[in-house]
Amino acid sequence: MRDAFPETPRSLLSQLGRGSDGTLDHGAWRQFFDLYHHAIWVSALDAFRRFRWNRVPEELLEEVIADVVISFFKSDFTYDPNRGRFRNFLRQLTAWRIMDRLGKLPKATESLETVEETAEELADSRLPGDGVEAREKEAFRAALLAMMLEEVRQQVDPQTFLIFEMTKVRGEKPEAVAARLKVKRNIIDGAVHRVFRRLQALAALPEYQKEFQSWNSDDV
Amino acid sequence: MKPTKSPMDKLFRPIPPLTPEEGEAVLKEVAEAFGVIERMRASPTHERIRAKIAQRMERGLA
C-alpha cells in the first residue's frame, strides 16, 4: 500500500506549527487552532472538572484555549513524536495553562483550595463517571481524522478534494456532483477512491498509528 | 471471543483488508469528523478566540 505513493517524510502531525526547515512557524498557529480548538476545549473542561470546577466562565475557558495555542508556539516544551502521543502532550499543556490561570485568580476563590496538585497529577488523574473522558477521546479522534483529511487535501489536486467534500462531507449525490462539475460519473468515484487510498497511506505512518492506539486504550 | 474490528480499526490495521462497505464507513466517519471541525471553525466562539490569539501574537506576547 505504502509503495503506491511517494514516502511522506513527516506527517502533518509532526509538522504542526513548523516550517519546512523544522523551525517554529508562527503563521501556522491558525491551522493548529482550527484543527484542535474543539479538542482543547473538551480537554480544558475535563481538567477544570478535576479542580472541582463544574462550571467554567466562558471567558476564562476562551482565555485558557488561547493560552494553550500560544504556548504551543512559544514554549520550549515542544511536541516530539518520538517521546509520546500528541494527545497526551496537549492534555499536559492544557493542564499547565489552567494552573497558570487559576494561580492568577483571587485567593478568596473557593475553588482554589484544590489547586495543589502538580500539573502531572492533574493530567493523569480522573474523576469517575463524568462522561467527559469519552467526549475528550472523541474530540481528539475527530481532530486527528480531520488532520489526516487536511493532509490529504494538500496531496491531491483541488478538484479531487472538492469532489470528496461535496459527496462525503456535504452528502451530495454523486450524479449531481458530476453534473455540477461537468465531469463523467466515474470521475467522482475515482476521486473518492484516491482520497481513500491516501488516507490508508497516512494511517500506516507511525505517528498516526500511535495516536490511533490511544483511542483504544485506557491510557489517557 | 475476540472483539470484532471496526472499519476504522481496519483502516489503521488493514489486515484483513477493508471491504468496500467498510471503506465507505471509514470515509463517512472521516467526513463527519471533518464536518465537526469545519462547523467549529465557522462558530463565533472560534472567531473570537482566533482574534484574541492573533492580537496577542501581534503584540509580541507570544
Keywords:
heterodimer; A: 220 residues; mainly alpha; 10 helices; 0% strand; elongated; B: 62 residues; 69% helix
Please tell me about this protein's structure.
The complex is a heterodimer of chains A (220) and B (62). Chain A is an all-alpha fold and 220 residues long. Helices cover 64% and strands 0% of the residues of chain A. Chain A starts with 11 loop residues before the first helix and ends in a 5-residue tail after the last helix. Residues 1-9 and 107-129 of chain A have low confidence and may be disordered. The mean pLDDT of chain B is 85. Chains A and B meet through helix 2, helix 3, helix 6, helix 7 and helix 9 of A and helix 1, helix 2 and helix 3 of B.
Morphology call of chain A: elongated
Order of helices and strands of chain B: HHH
Percent in strands of chain A = under 5%
Poorly predicted spans of chain B? none
Terminal CA distance of chain B = 52 Å
Strand content of chain B: under 5%
Based on CA atoms alone, the radius of gyration of chain B comes out at: 19 Å
Rg over alpha carbons of chain A: 20 Å
Mean pLDDT of chain A: 78
Number of strands of chain A: 0
Q: Which structural category fits the helices and strands of chain B? A: mainly alpha
**Tally of separate helices of chain A:** 10
First-last Cα distance of chain A: 31 Å
Helix content of chain B: 55-70%
How much helix is in the residues of chain A? 55-70%
Query: Largest interface by residue count?
Result: A-B, 40 and 31 residues
